[in-house]
Amino acid sequence: MTEEQTPEEHAPLNGRSSTGESRERVSVTAVAHGKINLHLGVSDLREDGYHDLHSVFQSVSLKEQVRLVEVASGEEETMTVAGHDAHLVPTDRSNLAWRAVEAVQQLVFDAGAEVAPVSVHIDKGVPVAGGMAGGSADAAAALVAAVEFYFHRHPASNHLPAPSQQQQHAIASGLGADVPFCVLGGTALGVGRGDELASVMAGGQFHWALATDKRGLSTPKVFAQLDKQREQSSQGMRPDVRAGDTAELMRALISGDPEQLAPTLINDLQAPAISLMPSLRATLLAAKKAGALAAIVSGSGPTVAMLCRDAEHAVDVATTVSVEGKASATTTCSSPAGAARLLDGHDETSSHS
Question: Region Disordered: start and end of each range (predicted)?
C-alpha cells in the first residue's frame, strides 16, 4: 500500500470477480495542470450568445490530482475534495470531474458492458474560481483516469476498445472550453471557443508569482461585463482596446526570454474583471512596484499572474505583494508544464510538476 492509498482502496471487494477469485479494488490516479492565458483576444458577442476566442495558453506547474476508486456492492459513490479552498468546490454531479467520469461510463454502457461504480477524490493545487482552469483541470484528469479505469484496468470492461483521441477530445470539449487544453498541456494556440488547439513552440521555462483573491469571479459575469463595455465603446463612451495578433508573442516564446515575453502579454477580459473587482488595480500596481516584468489578470480572473526573471525573483515578488496586503494569498509556479497524465504509486507521493 502506498502512502496515498486508503484502507478502502487496499481492501478486497465484497464477493468475487467473474473468475471466482477475490481481488483488490481498482484504483486509478491522474493529474492535470492549470493554465495562464498569455494572450486572450475575445470577439464581439455572436448571435448564438457565444464569443470567438483567440488565445495562447500555457500550462503551469500547479496541478489537480484526481483519484477514482472502485466502489463495492452496497457502498455509496462519493466525491471528496481536499486542498486550498476545497470547501468552495461542489461535490455533487455538477462537478466537472463527475461529468467527465459519467461521459466515459456512458461509452461503457453503450458498448453493453457492466459499468463499475466509483468514488472520486480531488486534491486541489490550482486556485478555485481564479481564472486558471482549476475545474477544467479536474475534468481533464478525471477523463484520463476514467478511460484508464474502464478500458484498461477494470475486468468488467477492459476488453472494450478504448475511445479514440478524437472521441476523448469531443468529450473534453463538451465539458468546457478549457478542458481540451488541460488534457493537452504545454503551450497552445486556441481558437473558436478556445477548444480548437494547435501546439506552439516555446523555449526554456518561465517563472511566475501569482496573487489570488478568495472572492473569485464568475466567468459568465466577466464576459457579460465585456459585452457592456464594448457597447459603451461603440457609443464613444470609452476607448475600444483589443488584443492584436500574436506574432511578437510567438517570437518571444521561442526565445525563452521573459524580458521579451513581458510586453506581449494581453487579456481582453482584464478590463471587465477590474470593473467587477476594482481592487485588482491595486494588485497590478503592487506587482509593478515589486519589480515584476509584467502582470496580467489570468483568464477571467481574479488571479493576477506576474512574470518574473527566475524562480528566486518570483519568490521575492510574491512575498512583496503579500506583505503589501494586495492579495488573499500568493504563490509561485513555472511554465510550461505537461499534459494530463496517469500517476503510478511512486508519482502519487512526489511533488514534481
Answer: 1-25
